[in-house]
Amino acid sequence: MHRRGILAAVMTAAGGLFAASAKSAQASPAPDKTKVVYHLTDLDKVAFVLGNIKNHYEGVGGPANVTISLVVHGPALKGFHAATAGPETTRRVADFSRAGLQLNVCGNTMRAQEVTLKDLLPGFVVAEDGGVVRIAELQSQGYVYIRP
């Protein structure tokens, strides 16, 4: 075989491998979205954590690309009382809720603070067994744990 023939054979084989790998990449299903649980207990970190969630959504290209769950318990819950929440918190919670943020509140904390869901900003669901139990459930489902 001449050098040109060898070179042509190598180029043909390389082109075939490239085409096969491109076709395989197209056939592969899209990877699952990242799932993240933010754990919030400190009242003084409410705005900070909501800012982290905003940055997280922006960093991955929007809520369609990530599933985020916020679990609130302890003193931080006071930051989400409808009667006393600041306008920025109220706006962000409403925006995030519409975008799909899962808002979980600890049932034990609610009982300790003597509040009901109607006392909180809209969108929360009660983790009846507790916030830490909910976090463990989410982690067992593949959620990445973040506690800012």
Description of the molecule:
With 148 residues, the chain is α/β, with parallel strands linked by helices. The protein folds into 2 domains: 29 residues; 113 residues, Hypothetical Protein Ychn, Chain: A. Helix content is 47%, strand content 18%. The chain is built from 5 helices and 5 strands.
Summarize it.
Helices cover 47% and strands 18% of the residues. It contains five helices and five strands, in the order αβαβαβαβαβ.
Features:
single chain; alpha/beta; Hypothetical Protein Ychn, Chain: A; 2 domains; 47% helix
Tell me what the CATH architecture of the largest domain is.
3-Layer(aba) Sandwich
Helix count?
5
Which fold name corresponds to the CATH topology of the largest domain?
Hypothetical Protein Ychn, Chain: A
Helical residues, percent: 40-55%
The chain-level mean pLDDT equals 87
| Total beta-strand segments | 5
Tell me the major beta sheet: 5 strands, parallel
Strand order of the largest sheet: 4-3-2-1-5
Distance separating the two termini: 66 Å
- Kindly provide the radius of gyration, computed on alpha-carbon positions and rounded to a whole number of angstroms: 24 Å
Task: Report the sheet-strand fraction.
Answer: 15-25%
CATH class identity of the largest domain = Alpha Beta
